[in-house]
């Protein structure tokens, strides 16, 4: 499904260059897309507080991929904000967050999986759809697999850390129509899981669609 | 004519080295007079060095920060299916806490407990900042290559993993033992690099048959100009598989389900 790229569309405001791609990702679905160096990917949280689990791979060598730990270390902060450079496991810039109207995004909480759901909520959740299955669904079709799963980004998800180390996914700080803009610093293959989780507040207990716009 | 100009002389020269002792080396046959069971691995890992080892379910792995300046980065794989590996994000998320210490579990990406932290006298560890890489060491120390004076943890991992048939894609987010990182209210990461007392130690219990890969390189947030790290002693001994009444197994509902998943995996 493609959204109408009408000139009056507020979701396109501030994007420079041509609109190269504009798509609504349904609730619970995976998404895979190449974003080339210099292009901007805008993610729109259409209905608010919808976690967008995000991984990316260097287009020429997918053993180079997003690294949450390298990204945290380079900026000496766990939260992803405007200006954060998203680094690879080789320490190279993959994308930069050039703008977001959400205070911060998460990269320590990881992706939900059928298996970890059994720990977090009980074995009755084993059959529920999960982000790792979305990542695998998208990756396996292009020759990647389970070895390509690493710690990811969760846009529009809120994971605070308390002084005693307590952490958890808590109520979101996003809202309908809020966005994050990512400028590619190299050619990257972006893989997204529009999170299907229903057992915690990461999606307000109600998974919803998100919009992906590529401009440049 | 030199003493090594022919094979006989070269052989004699090589054999004359036997019995040399250095600080960083393995002990064979494995032996330690301070282990709590039959010793299966005894090795002091060099400053800047690495090691990898297969450990049986139930084995204990003790790491001793001999001189107080070790930084041991660790990967963990399931021996029989290395696609299953330590998942740092799940480890902190499932246990509702980002700080590692006694009683905490190391969880795989398949919802299983891989290792348990049985004891911890250090209290400063890091699940957030990961390994140094060639670029970060080159920036800080002038070079970061395996063949140079400032090896980086990520490339150490690559070598350790390769010896078990694993590759770059298998080098996953890691845990750092003995150097701490705290998260401030605004998300800032504050490293705790020491100085620390000599002899701090952790003891881990393998809850699955695992491959552990260790890299002993300066923490990636170490503020010191010098490449500062000291050797770590690794000792492993055989031990019982975790019984049903084990305190760590039963400490939390999430952890108990991780043990149930591991026990289910070995029901065969």
Structure description:
The complex is a heterodimer of chains A (216) and B (268). Chain A contains 3 helices and 10 strands; from the N terminus they run E-E-E-E-H-E-E-H-H-E-E-E-E. With 216 residues, chain A is an alpha+beta fold. Chain A has one domain. Chain A is globular and about 50 Å long. The mean pLDDT of chain A is 95. With 268 residues, chain B is an alpha+beta fold. In chain B, the strands form 3 sheets. In chain B, strands 1-12-3-10-6-5 form a 6-stranded antiparallel β-sheet. In chain B, a hairpin with a 5-residue loop joins strand 8 and strand 9 (189-192). The longest helix of chain B is centred in the C-terminal third of the chain and has 13 residues, at 253-265. Classes of the chains: A alpha+beta (216), B alpha+beta (268). The interface between A and B is large, with 48 and 47 residues.
* β-strand amount of chain B: 25-35%
Return the domain count of chain B: 1
Strand content of chain A: 25-35%
- Give the tally of structural domains of chain A: 1
User: What is the share of helical residues of chain B?
Assistant: 10-25%
Continuous helix count of chain A: 3
Order of helices and strands of chain A: EEEEHEEHHEEEE
Query: What's the overall geometry of chain A?
Result: globular
- For the report, how would you describe the main beta sheet of chain A? 6 strands, antiparallel
Q: Total number of helical segments of chain B?
A: 5
Looking at how many chains there are and whether they match, the oligomeric state comes to heterodimer
Termini distance of chain B?
A: 65 Å
Strand order of the largest sheet of chain A: 1-10-3-8-6-5
What value does the average pLDDT of chain A take?
A: 95
């Amino acid at each position: 499904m493609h959204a109408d790229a009408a000139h009056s569309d507020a979701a396109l405001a501030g994007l420079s260059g041509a609109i190269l791609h504009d798509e609504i990702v349904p609730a619970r679905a995976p998404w895979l897309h190449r974003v080339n160096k210099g292009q901007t990917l805008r993610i729109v949280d259409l209905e608010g507080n919808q976690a967008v689990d995000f991984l990316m791979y260097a287009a020429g060598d997918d053993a180079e991929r997003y690294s949450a730990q390298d990204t945290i270390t380079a900026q000496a902060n766990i939260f992803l904000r405007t200006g954060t450079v998203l680094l690879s496991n080789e320490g190279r810039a993959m994308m930069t967050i050039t703008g977001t109207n959400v205070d911060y995004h998460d990269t320590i909480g990881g992706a939900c999986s059928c298996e970890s759901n059994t720990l977090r909520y009980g074995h009755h959740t084993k059959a529920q759809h999960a982000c790792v299955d979305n990542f695998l669904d998208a990756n396996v079709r292009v020759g990647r697999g389970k070895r390509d799963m690493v710690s990811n980004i969760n846009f529009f998800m809120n994971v605070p850390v308390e002084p005693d180390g307590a952490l958890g996914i808590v109520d979101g700080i996003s809202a309908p129509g809020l966005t994050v803009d990512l400028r590619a610093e190299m050619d990257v293959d972006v893989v997204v899981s529009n999170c299907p989780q229903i057992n915690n507040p990461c999606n307000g207990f109600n998974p919803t669609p998100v919009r992906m716009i590529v401009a440049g | 004519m030199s003493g090594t100009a022919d094979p006989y002389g070269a052989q004699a020269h090589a054999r004359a080295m036997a019995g040399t002792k250095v600080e960083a080396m393995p002990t064979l046959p494995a032996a330690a007079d301070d282990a709590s069971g039959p010793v299966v691995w005894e090795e002091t890992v060099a400053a800047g060095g690495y090691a990898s080892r297969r450990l049986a379910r139930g084995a204990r792995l003790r790491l001793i920060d001999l001189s107080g300046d070790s930084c041991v980065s660790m990967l963990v794989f399931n021996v029989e299916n290395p696609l299953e590996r330590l998942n740092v994000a799940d480890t902190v998320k499932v246990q509702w806490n980002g700080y590692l210490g006694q009683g905490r579990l190391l969880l795989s990406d398949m919802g299983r407990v891989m290792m348990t932290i049985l004891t911890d006298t250090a209290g400063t560890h890091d699940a957030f900042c990961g390994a140094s890489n060639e670029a970060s060491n080159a920036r800080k120390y002038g070079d970061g290559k395996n063949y140079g004076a400032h090896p980086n943890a990520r490339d150490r991992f690559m070598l350790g993993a390769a010896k078990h048939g694993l590759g770059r894609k298998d080098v996953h987010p890691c845990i750092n033992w003995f150097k701490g990182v705290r998260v401030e209210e605004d998300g800032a990461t504050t490293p705790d690099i020491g100085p620390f007392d000599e002899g701090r130690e952790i003891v881990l219990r393998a809850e699955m048959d695992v491959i552990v890969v260790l890299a002993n390189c300066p923490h990636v947030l170490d503020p010191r100009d010098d490449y500062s790290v000291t050797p770590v002693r690794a000792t492993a001994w055989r031990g019982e598989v975790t019984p049903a009444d084990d305190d760590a197994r039963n400490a939390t509902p999430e952890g108990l389900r991780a043990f149930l998943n591991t026990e289910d995996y070995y029901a065969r």
